[in-house]
Amino acid sequence: MHIRRHGAALLCAAIAAGLLAGCAKRSSEPLVGVFMPLTGPTADFGLTTRDGIQLAVDEINAAGGINGKPMKLVIEDDRGIPAEARTAVTKLVDQSGVVALLGDVASSNSLAAAPVAQMRKIPMISPSSTNPEVTRAGDNIFRVCFIDPFQGYVMARFAAEHLNAKTAAVLWDNGSDYSTGLAEVFKEEFPKMGGKIVCDVVFRAGDIDFSSQLTKIRATNPDVIYVPGYYTEVALIGRKARELGITVPMMGGDGWTSASLIERAGNSLEGCYHSDHYSADSDEPHVRKFVQSFTKRYGHAPNSLAALGYDAAWILAEAMRRSEDLEPASIRKQIAQTKDYPAVTGKITINPERNAEKSAVVLQIRGKAVHYVTTIEPRK
Amino acid sequence: MQEFLQQLVNGIVWGSAYALIALGYTMVYGILRLINFAHGDVYMAGAYVAFFTAGALGGLAMGSPAGALVVMLIAMSGSGLLGYGIERIVYRPLRAAPRLTLLIAAIGVSLFLEYSAQLAFGSEPRLFPQLVPARTVVSACGVVISNQQAIIVAVSLALGLGLQFIIHHTSMGRAMRAVSFDREAASLMGVNVDRVISFTFVLGSALAGAAAVLVPMNNPQILPFMGVQPGLKAFVAAVLGGIGNVWGAIAGGLLMGIAEIMVVGYLASSYRDGIVFAILIVVLIVKPTGLFGSPVTDRA
User: Fold this and answer.
1) Reported confidence tier of residue B296, pLDDT bands at 50, 70, 90
2) What CATH topology corresponds to A149-276?
3) Of the candidates A33, A215, A370, B166, which lies 20 to 30 Å from B159 by C-alpha distance?
4) What pLDDT band is residue A333 in, cutting at 50, 70 and 90?
5) Chain-chain contact of B261 with A203 (C-beta, under 8 angstroms)
6) From B10, B146, B221, residue closest to A212, measured CB to CB
7) Cβ distance A169 to A290 under 8 Å?
């Protein structure tokens, strides 16, 4: 009995504390909320993005912060779970009083969090959620990466113009929005550039046998094979294709970006190409400076997630510097006006759909590493 | 024609794995009238045993036929042991219970194994080590057969024949047939029913363990839920061939493998998983006991 009464008192205190925290005042320093997975199976994505953001914020503050005030980060771990991303955003806005948000990495988490940010009218920039739906949640939701279908266009142009391919086969996962988006645009664009789709076959995520699809592709003898899947399936497809005696290059999207792709595929993907957000090989000075300072600080070269995190933080900081009062509404207005910003992942213009219009790079797998081949500009 | 022959080769290789897994279903059903839904997960467990064995043996297991054989024998033992354990701990205490109880217990065991594996090994697909590096052994008329594919078919065939020998030419095999025919009568004749049932589980599970080395050898990726689809399809293969019938399971497995490959090759690739069940429905309508099944006689 005594214990129970004690518990009730504690509960009241907790509720009161929660209510007080709920009406937290905005501090004089501009607070920026960051939500991404820092633990759990996709922790790697969140941690490396956060490293990119942290590097950018330190540079911003070393260069005078936001008009004299340092930019401060409040970081929440959402463990890569959509429901927790929603909770994290609620907490960041209602309790910490952030004026802008950076997150999430995966599209499914951004899709869950975006309506919460939109409802509270807090601008949110996703560094790397490529699903087209994400920014349709409302006028406060932005991104600094390109969207999925753009990569289909990039590889169609690369195949037609750089590889001089006349025929192509497409092998895609019809259970994945990502793969479907890339494949559909490729199949639409490649014929417009004078090419011909000679074979169109699908697989399902989780399949391990691709002998039948590849035998069918082999019979049509294409110049290239477009495989917009994720690295686990792509590795198995590469192995089986070489086993069946298919020697033409294969191409894919950023789903190929994984340190383990080459290990899983053996040398079967040697000479193959995929599109990506950025290349650490670039010789542009601002990219080299970013790669150098990131490597110096974290001991390894930044991948595209780190670069996108860095760009998202800088674009937000520039918008905050231009805004007259550091209120969410004016920051939102300024992010929307970002034009030709020289980001490390390419020149970024935020378009009326609040997506980034920017270039993509094409990388080639050569000798157990990926190398920069060319940059493809957005279509006019 | 070249394409058709190549697809036929692909289908036979793919179907051999279904056949090996289907044998376990059909044997357990034959003896216990139980559809052991955990069988696909015994297959998964065998793959992880092989994965860690190959890892522990390191260079010893790679590239040499003897090393691959050792890995396969250990995987078969591991699966066999698991099959024994499942029967001993879960199914035996329930043997007198209604059939439905047993079936639900089987589903429970299946889920338990899947999620335990996810907890223990993580959900990330693992790269299965290259026990026998791929090499082309036949390349004629546009048909390419790799050494791995040849091994899969040869080993499956050998195991199928071995099983046939055990069932028809050993005393344990005779006991198995007797228990399958009439458990009570067999027990009255002095057959140790518990031992026979245990033996059946070990044998069927060991065959799944063999498949668990052969399939990832050619398609080097394993994950905790890898047994779900093959398990389901091997079950269909067993029903298709006439559940309880050894040759039926082999024929059903091959038929399903070939059907799947041909659907992708010549019809719509998105119907790959659907065709299996379409065939099952047609067969069950035309011949309810399966292709090789004997007519059901009421033994009440």
Assistant:
1) low
2) Rossmann fold (3.40.50)
3) A215
4) very high
5) no
6) B10
7) no
Q: How far apart are CA B196 and CA A301, in angstroms?
A: 61
Q: What is the mean pLDDT of residues A203-208?
A: 84
pLDDT attached to residue A16? 53
Residue B95 corresponds to which tokens in the numbers above?
């043997």
| Cα B51 to Cα B60: distance, rounded to the nearest angstrom | 14
**By percentage, how much of chain A surpasses pLDDT 90?**
65
Q: What ipTM is given for this predicted complex?
A: 0.86
Chain B interface includes A263 (CB < 8 A): yes
Of B232, B224, B205, B233, the C-alpha closest to B48 is B224
Residue keyed to tokens 């090759």: B265
- β pairing state of B143-146 and B136-140: antiparallel
Give percent of chain B above pLDDT 70: 96
> Read out DSSP for A216-247?
HHHHH--SEEE--S-HHHHHHHHHHHHHTT--
Instruction: Indicate the pLDDT class of residue B277, thresholds 50, 70 and 90.
Output: confident
Residue B232 in domain:
yes
Question: Which of A172, A173, A233, A243 to probe the B interface (max B CBs under 10 A)?
Answer: A243
Instruction: Answer yes or no: do B264 and A216 touch at CB < 8 A.
Output: yes
A240 vs B219: CB contact, 8 Å cut-off? yes
Domain extent at residue B277? 2-129+145-286
Torsion of CA B103, B107, B112, B115, to 10 degrees: 170
The H-or-E segment that residue B222 falls in is strand B221-222
| Position B138 in a domain | no
To the nearest whole Å, the CA of A57 is away from the closest chain B CA by 33
CATH code for the domain in which residue B89 is found: 1.10.3470
Residues 6+ apart with CB under 8 A from B138: B144, B145, B150
Query: Do the chains contact at B265 and A174, CB–CB below 8 Å?
Result: no
Query: Which residues of A are less than 8 Å from B124 in CB distance?
Result: 41
| pLDDT at residue A97, as a whole number | 93
The nearest CA of chain B is from the CA of A207 a distance in Å of: 9
Please identify, in words, the CATH class of the domain defined by A8-146+284-358.
alpha beta
The per-residue pLDDT for range B109-160, each reduced to its tens digit, is: 999 999 999 889 887 788 888 888 888 888 887 788 988 899 999 999 999 9
Give me the number of domains chain B comprises: 1
Q: Pick from B218, B229, B269 the residue to mutate for testing the A interface (most A CBs within 10 Å).
A: B269
pTM recorded for the entire structure: 0.81
The strands making up A356-357's β-sheet, listed across from edge to edge, are: A341-343, A346-350, A356-357
Of A208, A235, A245, which has the smallest distance from its Cβ to B144's Cβ?
A245
- pLDDT tens digits, one per residue of A33-56: 999 999 877 788 899 999 999 999
Q: In this complex, which of A203, A236, A245 lies closest to B219 when CB atoms are compared?
A: A236
